[in-house]
Amino acid sequence: MTEMRRLIAGNWKMNGVGSALTEAEALAEALKAGPAAMRVALCPPATLIERLARTVEGSAVEVGGQDCRAEASGAFTGDVAAAMLADAGAGLVILGHSERRSFHGETDADVAAKVGAALAAGLEPIVCVGETLEQREAGQAVTVVQAQVAGSLPDALIGKAFAVAYEPVWAIGTGLTPTVEQIEEVHRAVRAAMVERLGETARKAPILYGGSVKPSNAAEILNTPEVGGALVGGASLKAADFLGIIRAA
Ligand code: PEP
Fold first, then answer.
1. How remote is the CA of residue 211 from the centroid of ligand 1, in Å?
2. What is the pLDDT of residues 102-123, one digit of tens each?
3. Percentage of residues in the chain with pLDDT exceeding 90?
4. pLDDT in tens, 136-159
5. Which has more pLDDT, 122 or 248?
6. Interatomic CA distance for residues 110 and 106, integer angstroms
7. In the chain, how long is the greatest CA-to-CA distance?
């Protein structure tokens, strides 16, 4: 496995129709003119993956999905298989996002099964973990994320390219962010749990921070020890904001 570069990934969530591709185009153009020091990816809704992949073709912008089914095919109305994402042009996939865990009841075991499916389809998983406000206030942030890491990362990841994203649930879309000391503490704990689960090769996988990252706080967050990039929601929808984060990194 080659050393992984830092990664800034944009999660468009359930936002965007064809007209949003102009933002992807602007991002790709800007990165052609002034390449980023890090890997940059956009994860649009599944309906836009193929068109977005064509839009950014030849640029440094990579493309990802936001979820996949653990099964390879079958009677699962409305779901998307990992191989379908890859066929549409995705190279990465976000798995276990807190919105999937809360709105769809996904467990760590579900996430681990999806990771296996993603790897089998040649996709690079970005596995999300993070505590709720209640859990943080109860002093459980570290134990919660370590348990999520232990349960969500299958053996199949050993030696493979992947990332973990630490996304405190209370920081997603709220404008709230942990202090850099809190981010560093949890990222170190996530790293320890990754190494315990998968062995020393897990040191090569970046740990992204996610939760209200914007151009004004990106430099401080991205320069925190053990922060290997960012998973960005709202601020990835506009090329100018996303570029502000990429340039700050
Ligand atoms: C996310 O949902 O992954 C996220 C980090 O969202 P936001 O940046 O909007 O907080």
1. 5
2. 999 999 999 999 999 999 999 9
3. 95
4. 999 999 999 999 999 999 999 999
5. 122
6. 6
7. 48
The whole-angstrom separation of Cα 147 and Cα 165 is 14
182 lies in a domain?
yes
φ, ψ of residue 153 to 5 degrees: the values are -105, 105
Task: Give the C-alpha separation, 15 to 120, whole Å.
Answer: 28
| Mutation to probe ligand 1, out of 12, 13, 14 (largest number of atoms < 8 A from CB) | 13
Residue 157 is given by DSSP the state G
Task: Report pTM.
Answer: 0.97
Residue 122 lies in a domain: yes
Task: Answer yes or no: is 1 within a domain.
Answer: no
- Per-residue confidence (pLDDT) for residue 3, from 0 to 100: 52
| Number of folded domains that form the chain | 1
What residues make up the domain containing 189?
A: 7-248
Distance 144 CA to ligand 1 centre (A): 19
Burial annotation 102-131 (CB, 10 A radius, 16+ → b, else e): eeeebebebbbbbbbbbbebebbbbbbbbb
CATH number for the domain harbouring residue 219: 3.20.20.70
In a domain, 2, yes or no: no
